[in-house]
């Protein structure tokens, strides 16, 4: 989620209410927003999802900025800085 917000500084709004297919596919496509989905009971039972699994839906137009942000975080090449060193 941090990689998503790095270029714009705008936090994603995630919604956890609704059917899995609606929240994982329809909402991100129609709204163009990233969503984190916790599968509903029926999906977990029918598709053998585990309790600790979730779906992270990313519309295609966000992929470029996510990839660009990798190099500016500690996952990429940026050096790690302790919090107390930043203050």
Task: Please supply descriptive tags for the structure shown above.
mainly alpha, two-stranded antiparallel ribbon, single chain, 87 residues, globular
What do you see in this structure?
The two termini are 24 Å apart. The protein is globular. It is mainly α. 40% of the residues lie in helices and 7% in strands. It has one domain. A two-stranded antiparallel ribbon has the order 1-2.
Offer a quick outline of the entry:
This protein starts with a helix and ends with a helix. The chain has helices at about 1-5, 20-30, 40-45, 65-70, 85, and strands spanning about 35, 55. With about 90 residues, it is mainly alpha-helical.
**Helix and strand string, N-terminal first?**
HHEHEHH
Q: How do the strands line up in the largest sheet? A: 1-2
Helix content: 40-55%
CA radius of gyration: 16 Å
Mean pLDDT: 77
Enumerate how many helices there are, as a single number: 5
